[in-house]
Amino acid sequence: MSVGERASAAEEIRAARERYVARGVATPSLVVDRAEGARVWEVDGREFLDFAGGIACQNLGHGPSAVVAAIHEQVDRYLHQCFMVGTYEPYVDLCRRLGELWPGEAETKSILVNSGAEAIENAVKIARAATGRAGVVVFDRAFHGRTSLTMAMTAKLVYKQGFGPLATDVYRAAAPYPFRGISTEDALASLQLLFQQDVDPRSVACIVLEPVQGEGGFIPMPPDFVQALRQICDEFGIVYVDDEVQAGCGRTGTLWAIEQLAAEPDLLVSGKTLGGGLPLAAVTGRAELMDAVHVGGLGGTFGGNPVACAAALAVLDELTAPGFAERAEHVGTLLRARLEEISSRQPLVGEVRGLGPMLALELREPTPEAAKATTAAALEKGLLLLACGLDGNVIRLLPPLTATDEELERGLALLEEALDDAGAVHA
User: Fold this and answer.
1) Which of 35, 98, 202, 310 is the most buried (most CB within 10 A)?
2) In this model, does residue 3 exceed pLDDT 80?
């Protein structure tokens, strides 16, 4: 196919998207043809470095050989067996593996579902069944999904505007955000005020927190805040739910981000990279909590699809293989050092932050225009980037942890060029 034919094919796909795909699904102009490692190729032949990772679904990069091989092997056996119809080994093996990798001492069990939002809903169901309570406490700038319940838990208007009425018994408190002047003490005071004026803590089933807020702006939760929440949960019999859908599976350098925060959750929600690019998420938690739900109260037709489970087992093997944690630490060190250098030269940037290799730049102006200009300029230069944050002014970096140093350095150079271009317009 000639260059002109490839370009024409891309335009046809864009036109068909406009005609047949619902407007509410936001998509860029990029039309993907193939991907490998840290690189993506468009239908017209252009190559891009991928610092978006399918929104944290590709911590191992595109098409890791061990994961692809596991998928092929399972496909040849069977594609689907509903777990409520027939028990199958990949589901059980993955639950066992998640238990072995639990960030604490508790004996655990797991359920497998299709997405992070579905897993969060099931975590709330489990907490409510175990405690006999209804209340759910979440935090400012949280993102937990776009389903009916998780919309109420998510703290950004665009994800829920016009979709009400929202689920009840969801309460919100402040979370630490040092760049905006909100300390651990401020956040704990906000939670105390919530308990004084809106909901009795003895009516709360669970507190749900991302150890690094993802869509909210890559804001890492201070260890003392997480540890204080753990104590509050223990005091009032509240279930601590650790939402690691975006921060987990090695994204912060350790398998689970909460490992770096010296606290053991009651339930841990994983997803995104867990499935190696296939739809899969899990709720793992203390066995007595997981078993609180009556038989038939949990499940779903495709939850724990065997092909996705086979992929996840290979993903976890790769994430826990000798040398991977050291590589992830190196990636985080390299990225942070270069981002600090960029920040020192770039007046648009207000803060570099994150945990391990889960890093971001918050731009000084609390408006989305400069971030949009940066991601658009990066795309033109061959770099896939995403913005996030309640104000849309945070540039997040999600390159594969398997990317080479050369790829990382090249992507960071393109990021700085894009910031320069955006700065020339939004200075």
Assistant:
1) 310
2) no
Q: Is 34 exposed, middle or buried (0-12, 13-18, 19+ CB in 10 A)?
A: exposed
Q: Are 281 and 91 in contact (CB under 8 A)?
A: no
- For 367-404, write each residue's pLDDT tens digit: 999 999 999 999 999 999 999 999 999 999 999 999 99
Please give the model's pTM, rounded to 2 decimal places.
0.96
Is residue 1 scored above 60 in pLDDT?
A: no
- Closest residue by Cα to residue 418 from 365, 376, 368, 363: 376
**E runs forming strands in 160-296:** 170-173, 204-209, 212-213, 219-220, 239-243, 267-270, 281-286
Domains and CATH numbers, the chain: 78-319 (3.40.640.10)
> Where do runs of H (alpha helix) occur along 21-115?
53-56, 65-75, 89-100
- Residue 345 CB burial class (10 angstroms; 0-12, 13-18, ≥19): exposed
Closest C-alpha to 413, from 375, 365, 367, 381: 381
Q: And the tokens for 394?
A: 């945070």
Decide: 312 and 383 in contact? Cβ < 8 Å.
Answer: no
Give the whole-angstrom CA distance, residue 269 versus residue 111: 10
* Cβ atoms 74, 307 nearer than 8 A: yes
Query: Which stretches does DSSP call E strand in 140-181?
Result: 170-173
Round to whole Å and give the CA distance between 51 and 374. Answer: 13
Reported as a pLDDT band with limits 50, 70 and 90, residue 26 is confident
Residue 171 tokens read as: 């309460």
| Alpha-carbon gap, residue 211 to 220, rounded angstroms | 6
